[in-house]
Design goal:
33% helix; disordered C terminus; five-stranded mixed sheet; alpha/beta
Amino acid sequence: MPPAVRGEDAPRGTDSASGGVDTARTSHEDGAPARKGKRRRKRKRGRKVFAPDTPQHQRPHTVAPIVVPPPPPVRAEAPVANGHAPQRSPMFGRDGPIFAALDLGTNNCRLLVATPGRPGQFRVIDAYSRIVRLGEGLSATGRLSEAAMDRAVEALKVCGDKLRSRSVRRARLVATEACRAAENGVEFLDRVREEARIELEVIDRQTEARLAVSGCGPLVERDTDAVVLFDIGGGSSEIALIDLSRYRTPRLANHIVSWTSLPVGVVSLAERYGGRDVSPKTFAAMVADVTAMIDAFDGRHRISHLMKGSRFHLLGTSGTVTTLAGVHLELERYDRRRVDGLWLENEQVDGMIAKLLGWDFGQRVANPCIGADRADLVLAGCAILEAIRAHWPSPRLRVADRGLREGILSELMAEEGVWRRPQPFGGRP
């Protein structure tokens, strides 16, 4: 059986022997043949010497071999000028090294596979997302149910196959609140290792908050003084207060001045109060419940002095805010390109929440941006959002269809230094 895919233990590759040099070039840019007489070196005993005009792809090298899993079937590539396909390390894709990030949350299983682009950016070459509701029933029993684990394992098998079909240079595969809180979390991780051949890393809440912030950095404009970034999850909700008023570094996470993780998310709150039929009274009780949790957050006032100006705003990354954005845009089919980065004014958010409260369960199911998978969860998410807006009022909310996975990819690529030097094999600088 092939080894399990491990996050930080994923095999690393190095540049090929050619070092990314175009083997079609000669030693002269004008194509004239190199002079052999003066440049040919004498043979020495026990050593074979090659003239400079020897084709580079035929030269031996002494780099130690790298042990990697068997590569996928080789795909035909367009030949270069000398008739030979370019040599590539198994850890590099067509545009550079391949990185992967997996996030198994209380509600969703998501995977991103990408290669570096311009500094601070990357290009997604594969993605997967499925609602698995791993935390279903967890708040009542303290355990992951068999049905929930079955759904998650099936999704993770797909992710594992995708990862093994590519030679990934580095990957980080994480699990969050459901696995942190469940009594049988370790048993579930063992099952994932055995059946899906994936080694999951259970991260703490602080790491989860930092990664979410790192993933949303590009959506914070340069003239911003402060941001409250929140990630409404299935079993927990992370909130980070970010101060950019004095200086700014490339990593947004460096500017977190206070953070908290509320032990509540859309799944747990909906299970506590009911998500199918939500009356205004029930909705108000949900908001009050979350408000009490935020009131216990000691660092909630750390950016109060920056909140009155126009350079402060909220930034939300979760299914709740992306759903609201999709409903606001009246999309017939969810479109990430139109949602990610969208600005919503206060009145627009108020209107969307009022509209959803006025819909019954069937109407929520019928909306293409909600559907059956989110129809019983979306109002619980709106209640968490309302509590956040009450504590940190802002005239604007920016919507992020990105977060933890993007943060993982950004950090992995930064650690590898891919944006500090030109990308080999045709990658973008």
